[in-house]
Fold each of these.
Amino acid sequence: MENRFNEKNEKEYMQDGYTIVKGMFDAGEMEAVLDTALEDEVIRRHTYGRKDKEGHTTKLALWYALGRDVYSNIARSERYLEGVEKLLGGAPAHFHTKLMQKEPKVGGAWEWHQDYGYWYHDGFLYPQMLSVMLALTQADKKNGCLQVLRGSHLLGRIDHGMTGDQKGADMEKVTEALKRLELVHVELQPGDVLFFHCNLLHRSDKNNSEKARWSLISTYNLISNKPYKQQDPSCYTPIEERYQGRVRKDDTARISEKDAHFLH
Ligand SMILES: O=C(O)CCC(=O)C(=O)O
Ligand SMILES: [Fe+2]
């Protein structure tokens, strides 16, 4: 049986700004997701690059609306949503999902940032938002796993400015936070799931290894936190039909080019 989000996870998230559920999806499910992603033409067509400050590019595809495809079944899974609902303190809406593709040897870094450092400017008034990351491949120090500053979600929102194609947090604040808070490398196995607060400071290194680091990140907003700027309606619409089943390759629809509302 797969592992579920529990009370200990809730406590950890409140204290540390993140929590991990190991083995939330089993090996068969993970094979289905990775297989689908690797041969997904629609995802490939919508994948774009982001340069870090050294000029190394990491790839991703991002979309807003949930459908009936394998990625959406994960994003609307009961396993995810029972946790998300607890952590947000109410009914969640889906903001967006990203397929992160950090390729061997070339996949670039992500600079220190808070996700709410971006989303604040998208018109979300409250930081009642979070991310859920599913490792599709092993993630470790060698292939540039996520790094977090434990407890940094309690700092509140830090100003962000541009570095490369990416927005990064004010390094004066980050430097001081690094002196006081523990830096944790979030090493994950396929099927492990990380829940993290939208004000948690995080980054990742370039992938210098021979192994790709792929992950699926779904982000959520409290329904009542409807943005005052125009956004895809998904981010304030209740999630219908929580997915109760196992994730499978053979019986699910493909992601829809038209309905997924990809970011270009
Ligand atoms: O996956 C990573 O290394 C970081 C990605 C990230 O933080 C983001 O897309 O906001
Ligand atoms: Fe992020």
Amino acid sequence: MAKTTNHTPRMNAAHILDRVFFEEAYSHLALNEALQDSSLSEVDNRFVTEVVYGTIKRLNTLDYVLEQTMKQPFRKTDRRVKTILRMSAYQLLYMDRIPERAAINEGVELAKRWGRGGLKGFVNGVLRTVARQGLPDFKRISDPVQRIALETSHPEWLVRKWVQAYGEDVCRAMCETNLKRAYTTLRVNRLQTDRDTLQRDLQAEGIETSAGNLSPDSLIVTEGQAMHSASFAKGAFSFQDESSMLVTQALDVEAGLNVLDACAAPGGKTTYIAERMYDEGQVLANDIHPHKSMLIEQQVQRLGLESVTTRTEDATDLDDTFEAETFDRVLVDAPCSGLGVVRAKPDIKWQMNPEQIKELSALQLRILEAAAYVLKPGGTLVYSTCTLMPEENEEVVDAFLQKHYTSFAKDEVRSIFPQQYDSDGFFIAAMTKRGDKR
Ligand SMILES: C[S@@+](CC[C@H](N)C(=O)[O-])C[C@H]1O[C@@H](n2cnc3c(N)ncnc32)[C@H](O)[C@@H]1O
């Protein structure tokens, strides 16, 4: 990526968006990389973050508005001009504090600086029309799927699936929540401290928090950068969404158990399992990607945990590697479409498609089968995803239980929608292997 050191905030945002739109970069990674590499002030960083996330979140609506202002199809517009128009239209339509004139002039200036000076008149004309016309009247769209898709900026195929699965009201609430800002949530490491003490320690470092909505181990950051705190460096907490905490809680662990985390990287749930076991017993953290296993090791080291071992293997082969009935607990936090975390990672909604979901559900079932084989009788198997998509959730669990109805019983199945607790959307299914505990 081009060095961003001398770029203006808008030029920075344009480069990041260009990578996300045309090179399939992940917005959060591209943003972190660019901001670390730039000499922008904190205020400018916040502006860049807002423009990047906002433009991606509202993409559908922005493209629709831009399409209305042009004679030729918007999709045929030059790549850079497309990005400039999208991010400038976002500022015009959704950022109240940016004066209209500034959004237009800066868009034109960006075209000049980014090698598209010949199109500055075009950019100017389109943005003036957008400013004059504003947002469309969504009420005039009679089809509910089309209306939700356009008004809340989600792909139509996804809205159709969510309406079918959960109904119009739940779908709309979910889509609206996906447009909000995501919180940063912390999980207290109870092996080192307790929630009140951590809250006070963070406050002394200028970081304000409030108690979470779902988990007694969670704090929500309301002000400040917890990442750079001394409490983080010494392992007093980890970053984790509250829904993820519930997954580990559903595994119902205790000290001394032998636990397999089949898809473990970057280790958020692994480390919580070890903490809940008082770091006594064994937690085997498996992931298919070696580079991701290193992330688990970093967290384990930071938290000072000794009960975790990492391993790199395709989880669909676990039944070949281990004897049957080896582990007391098995967690399958499966690779999934991630459609429950769209609020924090908005590009997911544009990058995912129905074909990928089909492939994922086949993989999920294969992993679940292999993982179930290595679980001891009486043990708990938890299957979870950070998505809300029946094909990857209920249908995977139902297919598994249909085949194993004599050997597995369903204990608890829960979908958490992002709008319920302001957390990530998650699916959690806890099952028990029949037979006596050994
Ligand atoms: C949802 S993430 C796990 C998140 C993790 N449990 C946590 O809480 O930090 C799914 C993980 O599955 C891994 N994965 C994908 N395919 C896999 C496979 N066939 N076998 C094992 N791991 C796999 C991915 O590398 C990814 O890290």
